[in-house]
Design goal:
This protein is of the alpha/beta class and 473 residues long. It is built from 17 helices and 20 strands. Helix 2 links the parallel strand 2 and strand 3. Helix 1 packs across helix 3 and helix 4 crosses helix 12. The longest helix has 15 residues. The two termini are 41 Å apart.
């Protein structure tokens, strides 16, 4: 594990003697500090982490990175002018390290630690499916390697370096999800993580409001591929079925492995059969090898997740037995949970977030299930120029699948018009200003035979609908 001496060396190029205490974790929230942590005080729009240093130390933090003056009650070592630092007289922790920028210091420390580690790093990016791919791939690689992954959604310029500080010298592989909003962000993450393998899931329209067009989004994601080492040491795992991803081979000198449903891909699948909430069955094809597989992943779209994990497994020299066993042991379906109401109606909770691509995939799963089908859909945000197109497509597909449609938010009026134009009766569509209003209405309407999909962007709090409908234990 990284030590206090390592932190000083990373920030000052000097290494003190006698402070080899290990850092157990990194946190930006004092409530999440565990004994031995480094607390990174970040100024925010509403909350300034510098106000919570005392709480962090009470919870066991050894070091706090700060960028502004704090109470004189704390030991503060000024690294803003490291030329006058007396490296031999470092006090015992806890203490604060005053730096020019707390976040940049965290990133510098993480980059330093990464260079010391003998570890393979897999970077994952894409518009949809990053987190599920991370979880499933971690399960596959864990069949052979001691593997670590970034927890939750710690996939940005703060979360990724915090994850790297958790890597120990016993780890062999790190699977790191890399988020994206604007060009340059993934390059920054790659400069810190130094990946050997890059996985691109797909290019959608989510975050287009900030990033721009799908072409600009694709260019930003391609920064992962530019960071990979040339073959034979580097591998780019690309979705052959997405033309924007398929063309990314031009950005890398790594060995390219294509996956998809097209037989022209290096590893591909066919004979896909959904078993509803019990998983999927399909056939893997790789060179002259054919494997019939059943895995506990929900929805036909999950085949791509399995293909990505298998492709990385092959690049990491896993056997097919290890790959398939890892897939079959994967019970993680991060973005969707199946719960029941008091009267037995099935509720598909997919409220984590929403984009046109993920919403269409969820609707396709709803189509595969038996029952009276209802979709409760909220606005899909941050689509920019794709706002109308995305909501229109969702409305058209919902009309093909659903008996009833419940819509939350102003943007879903686009989907409402599309559904009506596609033949859905006006009497089968209900609109609401917010999730709480929809929840109150639905509580009096659902029946035992209903299968209800609930999905929308985070800020609409569609989870409140699920909470209102779900049966109490």
């Amino acid at each position: 594990m990284i030590t206090i001496a390592d932190i000083f060396e990373a920030l000052t190029n000097s290494r003190p003697d006698g402070i080899n205490l290990a850092i157990t974790d990194a946190a930006i929230d004092s409530r999440q500090v565990i004994p031995g942590s480094i607390f990174v005080a970040l100024p925010g729009e509403n909350v300034d982490g510098h106000h919570f240093i005392e709480d962090a130390f009470k919870n066991g933090a050894l070091i706090s990175l700060i960028q502004s003056d704090v109470s004189s009650d704390f030991n503060v070592i000024n690294l803003q002018n490291s030329a006058i630092l007396d490296i031999k007289n470092i006090p015992k922790p806890p203490f604060c390290l005053l730096v020019e920028n707390s976040l940049e210091a965290l990133q510098k420390i993480a980059s330093f630690w990464r260079q010391k580690l003998d570890i393979k790093v897999v970077g994952i990016t894409g518009s949809v499916g990053k987190s599920t791919t991370k979880e499933i791939l971690s399960g596959v690689l864990s069949q052979h390697y001691h593997t670590i992954k970034n927890p939750g959604n710690l996939n940005n310029e703060i979360g990724l370096p915090m994850t790297i500080l958790r890597i120990g010298e016993g780890h062999q592989v790190a699977v790191l999800e890399m988020g994206f909003y604007v060009t340059g962000e993934i390059k920054l993450l790659c400069d810190i993580a130094n990946p050997h393998i890059g996985v691109v899931t797909n290019i959608g329209t989510v975050h287009a409001e900030r990033a721009g067009s799908r072409d600009i989004i694709a260019r930003g994601k391609a920064e992962l591929l530019e960071a990979l080492p040339a073959k034979p040491n580097g591998f780019a795992v690309l979705n052959y079925d997405d033309s924007l991803v398929r063309d990314m081979h031009k950005y890398t000198e790594a060995q390219v492995i294509y996956y998809g449903l097209d037989p022209r891909a290096d590893i591909w699948a066919d004979e896909i059969e959904s078993k509803g909430l019990e998983g999927i069955r399909f056939t893997f094809h790789y060179k002259d090898e054919v494997f019939n597989v059943r895995v506990p992943l929900i929805g036909r779209h999950s085949v791509h997740t399995a293909l990505r994990a298998a492709a990385v497994g092959l690049a990491m020299d896993l056997t097919w037995e290890e790959i398939i066993l890892g897939l079959q042991r994967s019970h993680t379906q991060l973005r969707m949970a199946a719960v029941h109401s008091d009267n037995g109606a099935l509720i598909l909770d997919d409220t984590y977030n929403a984009s046109p691509q993920s919403t269409l995939a969820a609707l396709n799963l709803l189509d595969e299930l038996d029952g009276y089908k209802i979709a409760v859909l909220g606005d899909m945000l941050e689509l920019g120029q794709y706002e109308y197109e995305g909501h229109h497509k969702v409305g058209v597909r919902a009309a093909e699948i659903c008996e009833e449609l419940y819509l939350v938010g102003d943007l879903m009026k686009i989907a409402e018009k599309a559904a009506i134009s596609n033949g859905m009766s006006v009497n089968k569509i209900n609109t609401f200003k917010d999730a709480l209003e929809a929840a109150e209405f639905l509580k009096t309407r659902i029946k035992r035979e209903d299968v209800i999909l609930v999905k929308g962007s985070n800020s609409l709090r569609m989870d409140r609908i699920v909470n209102a409908l779900e049966a109490e234990e």
